[in-house]
Inverse folding.
């Protein structure tokens, strides 16, 4: 797994896991259905509390970065932002977005290391009214076959170039303290990577 410092872009991957896995359920997520996908990511200890407590100042959006043809989910809290690069043809992503639309909220788990132990902090963020480019099931979401070109491209983009820029920012004058990018590792991509790893030996 790639790891870059606090000003870097990629430190591990994000995942989608069902809410029912967490017992007892976090209080702030009690009203969500048990199958609601929880979006996860690793986050430095120094900003975990900010990401989880700054609900009133948080902005969750969906979008794309034209120059890299990268589609992403973005969470911005005050002067910190997180990006999850996603495969727009992945059915698991489309299913998650449909469920988040129904619930009106997106649960996010921030994972960090606390004194050598894993610490989990949850946040729940309002689903935005627009989820473009995730609004065309007839075009996408049919599960194109995973391949190295798609996966390696997402990883290289996450590691090599921060997504924060005037081209995709509604607040170009804001200076961000930190910007992080994760690649969303869904079940089919995990299966693909396992098969690819096995074939190399």
């Amino acid at each position: 797994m790639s790891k870059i410092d606090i000003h870097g872009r990629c430190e591990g991957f994000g995942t989608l896991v069902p809410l029912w896995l967490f017992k007892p359920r976090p209080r702030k997520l009690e009203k969500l259905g048990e199958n609601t996908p929880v979006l996860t990511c690793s986050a430095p200890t120094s900003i975990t509390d900010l990401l989880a407590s700054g609900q009133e100042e948080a902005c969750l959006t969906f979008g794309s970065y034209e120059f890299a043809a990268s589609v992403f989910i973005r969470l911005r809290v005050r002067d910190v932002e997180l990006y999850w690069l996603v495969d727009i043809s992945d059915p698991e992503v489309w299913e998650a977005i449909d469920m988040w639309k129904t619930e009106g909220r997106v649960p996010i788990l921030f994972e960090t290391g606390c004194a050598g132990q894993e610490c989990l902090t949850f946040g729940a963020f309002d689903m935005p009214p627009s989820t473009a480019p995730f609004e065309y099931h007839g075009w996408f979401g049919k599960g194109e076959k995973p391949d190295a070109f798609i996966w390696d491209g997402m990883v290289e983009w996450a590691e090599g170039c921060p997504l924060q820029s005037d081209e995709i920012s509604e607040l170009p004058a804001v200076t961000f303290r930190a910007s992080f990018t994760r690649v969303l590792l869904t079940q089919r991509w995990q299966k693909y990577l396992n098969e690819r790893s096995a074939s190399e030996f």
